[in-house]
């Protein structure tokens, strides 16, 4: 491990030097004004950058802080009112108002085009690099196995997977396609390619974009709730996540690209929103764009535009007005159209899993469907608990200090175990596609190795149930081993320092379990068609049971058990497969899996990771039923130092600067005097700093002894006093307040629905204390017998 750590550090230092060189060449003069440290009062830093802008528009937020939704809404209303009034002055101003109104639709169009293009490129690259582990196309090395063989004139239908133009590595290097030596060479190169892809991916993430790791959905949910994480949606993150997503999926690790595609689409949304001042200067409006971008991400991940909109509404968005719903639909539509134009799967469809079943489902089949729902709920609970335990161990032990070594070890274990089993060797998407497929007359899969009746004269689309052949029994054993392997390895894979999605591995687990159940029910119906449960709907010689449908239902159940999705899950599944007729089985499995999983815990995998990382996320789904009051939660508590406040007209500039230096609060209540403590308003820390800096540079006579006042008229001052500083323009005269006897149930509801950063606690107009969003989260954790200090970003 020590040698591995030394080698890892040397390589990462080289890559860091490379990044510095690229930064100088690509972004030589780029500075991000959002990265200002508001606490730096004396250093020059980047603080002065804000003074080049008009002062009233300076209000931004520090990193790892929560936005004020009410303030952002008010600022957007003022901006819109100003544009509307100016539009009546001239034709040019009217045209500018129209451009402002249409800017939202333009941003949605650009997001859809870029997200769809990136998804198509990722799909094509993954298809090629996955096959590269096993061989290469001689006519064009950039062709995947399927593309190579279908463009060959020497390929026959019976041997459509074998063609002279595609050669395995053993054929190319030692001119052998069979035998132990050829198998060992192919096995070795498969492992080496997987390790190479994984090492390159984790190294790029560590050096260039640490935020490109993981699924991204927990962080997207937190950002959409109002939390600021600078750089998480930046250009480097977009670039590196796109490249490394191809590498990690191609390496064969038990992860998917669907969750990270939501992150990629949100990076696109953040980039395009920064081009329009309407969104770049308003964090609330920016989050409307990100909600629509999340819908576009799911749209291209699954080829499900409607499911993408519902996913954004149900799972990730915190504030989702009707206007955002329309724009999300438009962005998802454009993204799906772009992906369809690229046609990455070569089947003229948006998805790889499109199926057509020729047999309806029957009421008696609801019982196995519900059993699959129970399995999905239990699997979801098991996965969440084990994965969170492993991730917590990674964060609290020395294991977390060697992320590159961890990725290499997990990749090696995955490749070594996966290669001998054909169902784990292939890509997970291809595995799910095969499990979903119905067995037609032209299928060559082992899962379709049934014993045919030589006298059968039925059409090929209406093949009756048949006894299973030896290939089916072999496939069942291989699927059972693959199922156990996927369940175990996914627990350790999800959460590593590489892009990792969970949708596809969860669906694969459910699809394997469902296919085995489907084959079991099919054979039971064939051999015991006279049983009472089969007698009414399954006659001899009829096509009664579709095992592929069971795989589809199982996939939905396991995905629902892990994520706790319901409505959006069902819509995504029928868009993903085209199985509109099978909504009821999907609904039954999704609801059952959620009920079973909720019986063991309300948190889905994304909420669990939010709590693990200590993000200040106030989930609207959580219920608060405790009988506590605002006075039990507010600061200061008994025995603590009194609340730091500003007075309306008795503090000097030096007093205010000293208060800012000695504290790290985001803002300060303003009172009439420290004796009366009658509340006047609330001043943000950041704006106080900028206002004082601005005044010292641009206003004559403002010195350390100048009186700071927040009233309309200046206070009466003795002769020869320095020029006072008026800061009323940065004062919020209507801060949200509650009384000390307000139930915390009401306070929690207010924080959820209004998106507050803080509220002030008063009694008869007299300031008593303050409650912040983190105070609320700490109190909720304490009431749930959890560590209240875990609700801190780490």
Automatic annotation (TrEMBL):
Keyword Protein transport belongs to the record: no
MF terms in GO: antiporter activity; ATP binding; voltage-gated chloride channel activity
UniProt cross-references to Pfam families, sorted A to Z: CBS, Voltage_CLC
SUPFAM superfamilies, A to Z: CBS-domain pair (SSF54631), Clc chloride channel (SSF81340)
Domain of life according to the entry: Eukaryota
Membrane-spanning ranges: 102-126, 187-209, 229-249, 261-277, 289-313, 366-390, 402-419, 475-495, 502-521, 549-574
SMART domains recorded: CBS
Membrane topology: Multi-pass membrane protein
Protein name: Chloride channel protein
């Amino acid at each position: 491990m020590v040698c591995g750590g030394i080698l890892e550090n040397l390589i990462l230092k080289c890559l860091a030097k490379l990044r510095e060189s690229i930064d100088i060449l690509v972004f030589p003069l780029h500075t991000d004004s959002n990265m200002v440290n508001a606490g730096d009062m004396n250093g020059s830093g980047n603080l002065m950058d804000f003074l080049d802008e008009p002062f009233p528009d300076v209000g931004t937020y520090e990193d790892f802080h929560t936005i004020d939704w009410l303030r952002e809404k008010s600022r957007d209303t003022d901006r819109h009112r100003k544009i509307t009034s100016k539009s009546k002055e001239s034709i040019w101003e009217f045209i500018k108002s129209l451009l402002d109104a249409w800017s939202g639709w333009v941003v949605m169009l650009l997001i859809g085009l870029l997200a769809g293009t990136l998804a198509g490129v990722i799909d094509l690259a993954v298809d090629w690099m996955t096959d590269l582990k096993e061989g290469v196309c001689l006519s064009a090395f950039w062709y995947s196995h399927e593309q190579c063989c279908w463009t060959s004139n020497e390929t026959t239908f019976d041997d459509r997977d074998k063609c002279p133009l595609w050669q395995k590595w053993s054929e190319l290097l030692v001119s052998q396609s069979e035998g132990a030596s050829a198998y060992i060479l192919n096995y070795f190169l498969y492992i080496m390619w997987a390790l190479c892809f994984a090492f390159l991916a984790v190294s790029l993430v560590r050096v260039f974009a640490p935020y490109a790791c993981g699924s991204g959905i927990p962080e997207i949910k937190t950002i959409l709730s109002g939390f600021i994480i600078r750089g998480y949606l930046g250009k480097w993150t977009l670039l590196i996540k796109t490249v490394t997503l191809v590498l990690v999926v191609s390496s064969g690790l038990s992860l998917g690209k669907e969750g990270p595609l939501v992150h990629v689409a949100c990076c696109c949304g953040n980039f395009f929103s920064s081009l329009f001042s309407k969104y770049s200067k308003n964090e609330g409006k920016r989050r409307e764009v990100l909600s629509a971008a999340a819908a576009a991400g799911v749209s291209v991940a699954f080829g499900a535009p409607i499911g993408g909109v519902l996913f954004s509404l149900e799972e990730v968005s915190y504030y989702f007005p009707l206007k955002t719903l329309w724009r999300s639909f438009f962005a998802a539509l454009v993204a799906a159209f772009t992906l369809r134009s690229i046609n990455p799967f070569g089947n003229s469809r948006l998805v790889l899993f499109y199926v057509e079943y020729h047999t309806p489902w029957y009421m008696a089949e609801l019982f196995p469907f519900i059993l699959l729902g129970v399995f999905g709920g239990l699997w979801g609970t098991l996965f969440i608990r084990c994965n969170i335990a492993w991730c917590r161990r990674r964060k609290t032990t020395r294991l977390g200090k060697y992320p590159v070594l961890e990725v290499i070890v997990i990749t090696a274990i995955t490749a070594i175990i996966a290669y001998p089993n054909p169902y784990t060797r292939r890509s997970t998407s291809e595995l799910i596609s095969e499990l979903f497929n119905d067995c037609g007359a032209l299928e060559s899969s082992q899962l379709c190795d049934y014993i045919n009746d030589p006298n059968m004269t039925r059409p090929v689309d209406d093949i009756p149930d048949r006894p299973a052949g030896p290939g089916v029994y072999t496939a069942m054993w291989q699927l059972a081993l693959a199922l156990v392997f996927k369940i175990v390895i996914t627990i350790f894979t999800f959460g590593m320092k590489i892009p990792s999605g969970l949708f596809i591995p969860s669906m694969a687990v459910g699809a394997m379990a469902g296919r085995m159940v489907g084959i079991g029910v099919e054979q039971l119906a064939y051999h015991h068609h006279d049983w009472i449960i089969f007698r009414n709907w399954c006659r001899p010689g009829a096509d009664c049971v579709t095992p592929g449908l069971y795989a589809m239902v199982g996939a939905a159940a396991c995905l629902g058990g892990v994520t706790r999705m319901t409505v959006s899950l069902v819509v995504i599944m029928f868009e993903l497969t085209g199985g509109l007729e099978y909504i009821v089985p999907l609904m039954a499995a999704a609801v059952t899996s959620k009920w079973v999983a909720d019986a063991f815990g309300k948190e889905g995998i994304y909420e669990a990771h939010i709590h693990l990382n200590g993000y200040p996320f106030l989930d609207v789904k959580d219920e608060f039923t405790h009988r506590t009051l605002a006075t039990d939660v507010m600061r200061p508590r008994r025995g603590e130092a009194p609340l730091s406040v500003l007075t309306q007209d008795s503090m000097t500039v030096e007093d205010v600067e000293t208060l800012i230096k000695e504290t790290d609060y985001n803002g300060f209540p303003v009172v009439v005097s420290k004796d009366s403590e009658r509340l006047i308003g609330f001043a943000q820390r950041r704006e106080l700093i900028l206002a004082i800096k601005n005044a010292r540079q641009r206003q004559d006579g403002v010195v350390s002894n100048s009186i700071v006042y927040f009233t309309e008229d200046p206070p009466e001052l003795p002769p020869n006093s320095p020029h006072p500083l008026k800061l009323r323009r940065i004062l919020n005269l209507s801060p949200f307040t509650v009384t000390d006897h307000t139930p915390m149930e009401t306070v929690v509801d207010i924080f959820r629905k209004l998106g507050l950063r803080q509220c002030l606690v008063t009694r008869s107009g007299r300031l008593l204390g303050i409650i912040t969003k983190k105070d609320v989260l700490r109190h909720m954790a304490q009431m749930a017998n959890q560590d209240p200090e875990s609700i801190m970003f780490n």
